Amino acid sequence: MSAPADKVQSAIDDFNAAYGLCLDDDRLEQWPDLFVDDCLYQVIARENVDNGLPAAVMYCDSKGMLVDRVVALRKANVFPEHFNRHLIGRAVITGVEGDEVSAEASYVVFQTRNDGETRIYNAGKYVDRFDLGGGHVRLKSRTCIYDTLRIATLLATPI
């Protein structure tokens, strides 16, 4: 990769900020565009990762599955009205190979329901592989490893 390390860091952090706002602003139809076509997105418990268990609570292995997820959220799934707010820490770059960058970042998702109370909904870390080719940052994979021992309600919207 020819980009200096500070530009890569800035690009990844800017991407993560835009990712969080996309979800928080309920622009779910734009969410799949943050990924390459042949991608992986999963939300998995830390306990499962630590024990080598592959079962994820949300698993999509293509951009088409991400689109289907959004369609289901808009048309089929029933879940309590809520508003999420993502806080995403500065990414730690863990590897660079050509246009592919590996990184990890801590996250917390706060959720406010119609009772007006805000709670920590989910906390953990993103383990990512980014494609920085073509002048755009896109996710090749995002694994959301959550520390939260239980998810209080249906995991409807992406983390």
Automatic annotation (TrEMBL):
Keywords linked to the UniProt accession: Dioxygenase, Oxidoreductase
Keyword Cell membrane attached: no
Native organism taxonomy: Bacteria, Pseudomonadati, Pseudomonadota, Alphaproteobacteria, Sphingomonadales
Family from the record: Belongs to the bacterial ring-hydroxylating dioxygenase beta subunit family.
GO molecular function, one term: 3-phenylpropionate dioxygenase activity
UniProt KW Oxidoreductase keyword: yes
Protein name: Small terminal subunit of phenylpropionate dioxygenase
InterPro entries: NTF2-like_dom_sf, Rng_hydr_dOase-bsu
EC number(s) stated in the UniProt entry for this protein: 1.14.12.19
Top EC class of this enzyme: oxidoreductase
